Amino acid sequence: MAIRMPRIIRKSSTAGDVPKGYFAVYVGEKQKKRFVIPISFLSQPTFQDLLSQAEEEFGFDHPMGGVTIPCSEDIFIGITSQFRI
Q: Of 33, 42, 40, 34, whose CA–CA distance to 15 is shortest?
């Protein structure tokens, strides 16, 4: 069985390169990695849970220019790989 990866665009450059229909999130425990992901992820209940955790931990202050998700990169990829786009 093949593992299906969602359309996540991983970039390390600035906020000006986010295409229409996507948004930036920062994921990781110590070193944050930037992911540009489809806005369709916002409708996923599991992703909404991640956003609630981000709100609890960081509030609405995200100085890096994107939402900071408080989980490891492996967990984030595991969760988002299950989403149907």
A: 34
Q: In 3D, which of 43, 21, 33, 38 has the Cα closest to residue 69?
A: 33
58/43 Cα distance (integer angstroms):
21
pLDDT digits (tens, 9 = 90+) for 13-31: 555 678 899 988 999 888 8
Taking the whole predicted model, whether its pTM rises above 0.70 is answered as yes
Residue spans of alpha helices (H) in the chain: 45-58, 73-80
Closest by Cα among 53, 23, 52, 54 to 40: 23
Helix 73-80 crosses helix 45-58 at what angle (to 10 degrees)?
150
